[in-house]
Amino acid sequence: MILHIQDGSLLPIYEQVVQQVKEQIAKGILQEGERIPSVRELSAALLINPNTVSKAYQELERQGVLITKRGKGTFIAQTARAPGMEKERMDQLRMELKRLIVEARHLGLSRSQFQDWVEEISLDYWGNKHA
Amino acid sequence: MILHIQDGSLLPIYEQVVQQVKEQIAKGILQEGERIPSVRELSAALLINPNTVSKAYQELERQGVLITKRGKGTFIAQTARAPGMEKERMDQLRMELKRLIVEARHLGLSRSQFQDWVEEISLDYWGNKHA
Amino acid sequence: MILHIQDGSLLPIYEQVVQQVKEQIAKGILQEGERIPSVRELSAALLINPNTVSKAYQELERQGVLITKRGKGTFIAQTARAPGMEKERMDQLRMELKRLIVEARHLGLSRSQFQDWVEEISLDYWGNKHA
Amino acid sequence: MILHIQDGSLLPIYEQVVQQVKEQIAKGILQEGERIPSVRELSAALLINPNTVSKAYQELERQGVLITKRGKGTFIAQTARAPGMEKERMDQLRMELKRLIVEARHLGLSRSQFQDWVEEISLDYWGNKHA
DNA sequence: GTGGTCTAGACCACT
DNA sequence: GTGGTCTAGACCACC
């Protein structure tokens, strides 16, 4: 599993790990049930503290993305998709999107340019245009 | 000027002020050259610390959105519409959009649903579909 | 806020803090909106590491029991009672109760003795017998 | 002997075995003096590590629930019903019950609802209402 | 002042 | 071997 950590970033390191793991699952690089590197392995590979990796893994487990088995390791969860699709999180997401669009507008980005971005990135995660 | 502050939000209060001022400019509620409330007035109205408002105004001035005239007050800059479109901010924006899409994917949102959101929100800020 | 920590306990220290804070809220000792000791204060009072207190507070915030305001401190949340009353947690609770009853039975406790326990403890938390 | 192991559970696997064996004795499914599967048989049946089963059996033997006869196998102890009712375990049990009630209270469960639960589950294990 | 993050290094329980 | 907990001590952003 290859992750890229930016040291001086605004995002905490553990958050970068969280996001990139989710990203790789979304892209299909990491498969359900697959074992991911141990805390010690990943911390050694990324040159960061084991506690930091551990915090990221725990956050991911809390989100239902990973499951850890004591003494065995950490695995990608079977994505029993959230049944009710928590409305709260959805609303928050929509608000963040709104904020982003305001920012884009303010930076002078045109509507079509922004939608091109959405198209391009969507390809990486949903793949098929008509999914 | 009416702003809505969420006390327990993830965003720092000063960031909420920054974003909402920019939002209102983007929406045309605040006009270029218009005078905005003083630090003391706004801090009193929002029941927040004057230092926090001050920090927000300084950030907005740094971004070229506001301009402070000593003894006169603080005004929306004439050049509120960013001319050069700073590449750095654009890249950051694109990364945030990517993160949002990953999140949406993890929540089980379909591609078309997400694009519907983009359409809906875009209408509020760019108005014309072909802008 | 007075908490009692057992050092060699099976429960992690941070879990003891979590439980006792919830206990005191349930008993009405801690009121909604009330400020609780800062991480540093509590860690000093309990002779434990600030990180341990911080972990407990973060867990409580995740559970919606506390809210932290940056630079201000940590407060008892307004208990906007979970609307759907998460079924999952309820099921888990019922299972734990079953386990407890099995244990009690195995230890030779009689049914009436166990129910006496439930009565006694209930008084501390629900107060009124007919609540 | 049929046991159900949850792989990602909070309880250690060996603890799950311990509890379920005790549960089955309490329910009368396993009789005193009865032979139970060997470590190898059970570990094969449950697809878990033999060491884990061994640890569970040792714990059960320590508690006086099982008795191992070298070369013959492992059996339910004649004195499976605890005679002296160890005070230590009782205190712990009471504390766990307290924690459960605090949790129930926080989830918004009413006192009568909780007591209904106790009634229902008690029926399964003590059977007679006046036992 | 507040909480949040990170490091270094120790110990423990589980498999 | 695995992850989980705890300590000590540092630095940062926010108010």
Strand order of the largest sheet of chain A: 1-3-2
The percent range for strand residues of chain A is 5-15%
Oligomer: homotetramer
Q: Count of DSSP E strands of chain A?
A: 3
Work out the helicity level of chain A.
40-55%
Contiguous helical run count of chain A: 5
Query: What class, by secondary structure content of chain A?
Result: mainly alpha
Mean pLDDT of chain A: 87
Biggest chain pair interface: A-B, 43 and 44 residues
Element-by-element helix/strand order of chain A: HEHHEEHH
User: What is the first-to-last residue Cα distance of chain A?
Assistant: 27 Å
Cα gyration radius of chain A (Å): 17 Å
Q: What's the shape of chain A?
A: globular
Q: What's the story with the biggest beta sheet of chain A?
A: 3 strands, antiparallel
Q: Could you list the spans of chain A in which at least 5 consecutive residues all have pLDDT below 50?
A: none
Question: Could you explain how this protein is built, in words?
Answer:
By secondary structure, chain A is mainly α. Helix content of chain A is 55%, strand content 8%. A three-stranded antiparallel sheet of chain A has the order 1-3-2. In chain A, strand 2 (66-69) and strand 3 (73-76) form a beta hairpin. The two termini of chain A are 27 Å apart. Chains in contact: A-B, A-D, B-C, C-D. At the A-B interface, helix 1, helix 4 and helix 5 of A face helix 1, helix 4 and helix 5 of B. The structure holds a DNA duplex (15 and 15 nucleotides).
